[in-house]
Amino acid sequence: MEKTKRKIYKIGLFGYSGSGKSCILTALGMPRRPSPSGLSALWLPMGELDNSEHSNRLKAGKQWLEAAITQITKGEVPPPTAISDQFIFEYEFGTPEGRTFRIDIFDYSGELLNTRVDESQIAQNLRKIFSELDGILILAEAPNRQANSRDNEQTYHNIYGLSRVFAQVRSHKQEGANFDMPVAMVVNKWDRWSPDFKPLPSCPVPSFRSSNPNIDLTRPVKIPKNRFNFPVQKKLLDEFIGDQKNPAHKGLYDTLCNVMSQGNFELFPNQCFWQQSSGKYR
């Protein structure tokens, strides 16, 4: 009896420079403390590869991710992806109920950063990309409460840019319902803004060993020990989005709600990355 081919879900990742995309991809690809909820995420080794575009993007993603893991083990920020980079990362996600999901994450952030084309053309390109995806992950950087308004201007500018692009994606869809796929808006570096977040002294992460000689995971990496209570932070984030004093993030939230089909959109907070060498949040 012929086995049914396993479904591979395709998730598109979108976010401007500085949104924390590199840190999230790297964190998913390296050893870390188990999730309190019992969820799991593992970066998969590459199988047989050919000279196809998909295989080349997998190989490029592997090279970038290994370099990024090396940086994080040193307590440094992983290298940003260039506009020309087109990576694919393969992961296995699991739940406590025993369900597993094979997911390919496609990094499409270069589409947003390409200044050689206008936003209308970007929207048309993204519309074609969306037709091939099973879900979308959008990263929106939280403002820094400790910074002045001028320092946060670039963050707000990027958020407005995301809103305009996704609004135009919908305007180019001439007929039918809104895009019918799961979409998550992740407000990254949320603890830079949350008034409830209180970091404690840093603590070492358990040591790990890697079969890759270029990746040293035997030396503990310091990260802040914190009390990131998700239900509490989610409530604070909902209040932040509902506050008219935060028009950029509220505008992106409303745009995505209007573009995506009902029940397929959700909002999440996510923590910062701790840079060991400088002792600062990034």
Q: Could you walk me through the main structural features you see in this protein, from its secondary elements to its overall organization?
A:
The chain has 282 residues and is an alpha/beta fold. It is built from 7 helices and 11 strands. It starts with 7 loop residues before the first strand and ends with a strand.
Summarize the structure.
With 282 residues, the protein is an alpha/beta fold. Helices cover 33% and strands 19% of the residues.
Characterize the biggest β-sheet.
7 strands, mixed
Number of helices: 7
- What is the CATH architecture assignment? 3-Layer(aba) Sandwich
The first-to-last residue Cα distance is 52 Å
Look up the CATH topology: Rossmann fold
SSE string: EHEHEEHHEHEEEHHEEE
| Count of distinct strands | 11
**Strand arrangement in the largest pleated sheet:** 2-3-4-1-5-6-9
Portion in strands: 15-25%
Rg over CA atoms, rounded to whole Å, is 19 Å
**Low-pLDDT residue spans:** 199-226, 274-282
Mean pLDDT: 77
Structural class, judged by helices and strands? alpha/beta
Overall 3D form: globular
Percent of residues in helices comes to 25-40%
